[in-house]
Amino acid sequence: MKRVAVLGSTGSIGTSTLSIVESFPDRFQIVALAAGRNLELLRSQVARHKPLLVSVARADDAKTLAREFGHTRFVDGLDGLEEVACFEAAHMIVSALVGSIGLAPTVAAIRAGKDIALANKETLVVAGGLVMAEVEQAGIKLLPVDSEHAALHQVLGTAPIDSVTRLILTASGGPFRTWQPSRIAEANVADALAHPTWEMGPKITIDSATMMNKGLEIIEAHHLFTVPENLIEVVVHPESLIHSIVEFVDGALIAQMAPNDMRFPILHALSWPDRLPSRMPGLDLLAAPPMTFESPDEERFPSLRLAREALRAGGEMPAVLNAANEVAVASFLDGISSLPSIAATVEATLERWSEHNSPLASIEQALTADREARDVASEELRKYLDTEVGSESRC
To answer: Can you tell me which residues bind NADPH (predicted)?
Structure first.
C-alpha cells in the first residue's frame, strides 16, 4: 500500500489524483491533503478519504474544519503546507500546487526523503538545477506528471541520454492557434479559457493560450532529462493524442500516445515502475481524428522565445520569467489587462533583470528572486497599461 499526500488537492490535478486513488483502494491510500480556500470541495475529500493531516490557507478555516472532522488534524499557512509535504506517514507527495508557491514544500518533501510526483512545473523552472541536485542527494524518485514529460519518461526508459538526438514536446496550440494577432489582442478571459482539447485550471489554461506553458515545459524538460535547450523542440499537434516524441541517434522516432486525460500520467507516476490495469477507456485509433503537426508561430506567441532566452541566460532569469508571467496572468484573469500584456510584461521584466542577473546558489536565493521580480513585473505591467490607455485616448 503506497501512502500518498497531495499538495493542491482541490485543483484539477489534485482531484484527478484522488480519482485515481479511489480506483485502486488496494494500492493507494490518502494520508494527507493540502488545499487553499475551496472548503466545500475539501470537506467532501476529507469525508471520503479520512486523511490524518490537512492543511488549509487560513487559520480560521483550520479551526472550523477541526470541529467538523475529529479524526483529522488541521494546520494552516505556508508552515502547514510544509508539514503536509514532510508528513511522516506519506511515501509519496503529489506536488500539484499552481505557481512558485510549490517550490518550498516540494524541496522540503525531497529533503524529508519522500518520492515526488511532480505536477508543479514551476519548481523546476525557478530552481531546476538546485532541485535536481537535492533529488540526487536525497536518493528519492522524482516522477513527472505533466503529460509531455510523463510521455518522455516512458519513451526514454533506460535508454542512455547520449542515444537521444531530440526531445519533441507536442503542443495543442491553444484556443488562438488560428487567430490573427489583431484578434488575439482583443481576446477576453472567456476566449482564453476555452481550451480546445484539455480541461485544466485557469492559470495553466492561460499559459497554454499564450504558449508560455510550453516554454516552461522546455525548461522543465532540460532539468528532468539533462538535455541541452537546443535539442528540445516544440511541435504543434492540435489533436493532443501524441504527448511527446523522442528521436534517437539511429533516426527512430518513438512517441507516447493516450487520450488527453491527466489521469493517465498521474497513474503512471503513482504506480511506477509498475503498470496498473487502467479503469479508464484507452485510445481508440479507429475512432481518433487524423493527426496533424505544424511549427509554432513564435511571432504570434513570443513566450516560447522568452522562455528559451531565460534558460540560456541561466542564473535567476528562469525564476524571473516565471514570476513575471504569474503577475501578468493574474492581472489578465482579473480582467485588468490584455492578453498581449502578458508577454510584454515578461519581456520587459527580463530586460531589467538582465542587468544584475546572478548565478543561482541556493533555494533561498531563488525564492528571493521570485519575490523581487514580482515587484519589477508589477511596475512594468503598470507602464504597459498606461501606454495602452494613452494609445486609446489618442485615438
So the answer is: 10-13, 36-38, 120, 122, 201
**Residue-level pLDDT at 53:** 98
On whether residue 158 sits in a domain, the answer given is no
| Separation in Å, CA 95 to CA 8, 189, 279, 374 | 7, 27, 23, 23
Exposure on the CB side of residue 197, measured as CA atoms within 13 A: 24
For 247-303, write each residue's pLDDT tens digit: 999 999 999 999 999 999 999 999 999 999 988 999 999 999 999 999 999 999 999
The Cα–Cα gap between 210 and 215 comes to 10
- Assigned domain for 287 exists: no
Q: Decide if 63 is inside a domain.
A: yes
Residue 26 CB: number of other CB atoms within 10 A?
Answer: 6
Q: CB-hemisphere CA count at 13 Å for 125?
A: 31
Of the three residues 115, 144, 173, the one that is the final residue of a domain is 144
Residues 6+ apart with CB under 8 A from 257: 241, 242, 243, 283
Binding region: 10-13, 36-38, 120-122, 146-148, 172, 195, 201, 208, 213-214, 217
Last residue of a domain, one of 89, 113, 144: 144
pTM check: above 0.85: yes
Q: Using CA atoms, how far apart are residues 127 and 139, in angstroms rounded to an integer?
A: 18
CA distance 25 to 2: 10
SS3 for 141? coil
CA distance 394 to 245: 49
Grid look-up 488549509 returns 56
Binding-site residues for NADPH: 10-13, 36-38, 120, 122, 201
Task: Tell me, yes or no, whether 8 lies in a domain.
Answer: yes
Q: What is the DSSP letter of 211?
A: T
Which residues belong to the annotated binding site for Mn(2+)? 146, 148, 217
Could you tell me the CATH number of the domain that includes residue 330? 1.10.1740.10
Residue linked to cell 527512430: 252
Which residues contribute to the annotated binding site for 1-deoxy-D-xylulose 5-phosphate?
121, 147-148, 172, 195, 208, 213-214, 217
CA distance 347 to 107: 28
Is pLDDT of 393 > 50?
A: no
